[in-house]
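Lecture notes, continued. The same structure-token format from the folding unit now serves as the input rather than the output. Read the line below as a description of shape only.
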């Protein structure tokens, strides 16, 4: 096979493979680079806050809400806790995602605030959706697994949890 033909076929085969995988397993779920970078390494100057939220009850935006969901409690995380929470959320965001529910009853929120931007993650493990706000610009994505690690961090800080999802 001539090398010029091989150079044309390889990208075409890769593109078809990605299309087939997406068709079989579901849509691609790439989160914005700023959101994944902040979760990988929040930075020394970042303040990372974990929220326990009341699902299903949306209110006017105020100091007692996080993107319209009532705050049951919040904890500013120390660096080791922030790293744990951020890694957990990042590891729970799949590249390919299939079927999801449509409830969106977030019980958890995470804010990473740096001098130049605010990144908010509003998480519903029940339906598998995560809303990511970068300086209040929203993008919707999917998340999987469970909230146990985030619940553990909130409980350790004395923050009340909404009843667990069965």
């Amino acid at each position: 096979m001539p090398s010029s033909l091989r150079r044309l076929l390889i990208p075409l085969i890769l593109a078809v493979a990605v299309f087939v995988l997406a068709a079989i397993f579901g849509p691609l779920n790439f989160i914005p680079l700023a959101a994944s970078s902040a979760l990988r390494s929040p930075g020394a100057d970042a303040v990372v806050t974990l929220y326990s939220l009341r699902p299903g009850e949306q209110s006017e935006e105020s100091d007692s809400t996080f993107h319209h969901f009532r705050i049951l409690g919040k904890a500013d995380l120390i660096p080791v806790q922030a790293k744990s929470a951020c890694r957990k959320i990042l590891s729970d965001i799949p590249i390919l995602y299939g079927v999801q529910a449509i409830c969106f009853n977030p019980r958890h929120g995470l804010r990473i605030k740096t001098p130049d931007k605010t990144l908010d993650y509003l998480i519903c493990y029940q339906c598998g959706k995560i809303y990511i706000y970068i300086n209040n610009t929203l993008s919707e994505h999917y998340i999987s697994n469970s909230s146990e690690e985030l619940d553990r961090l909130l409980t350790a800080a004395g923050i009340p949890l909404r009843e667990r999802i069965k």
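Point for the exam: The longest helix spans residues 3-25.
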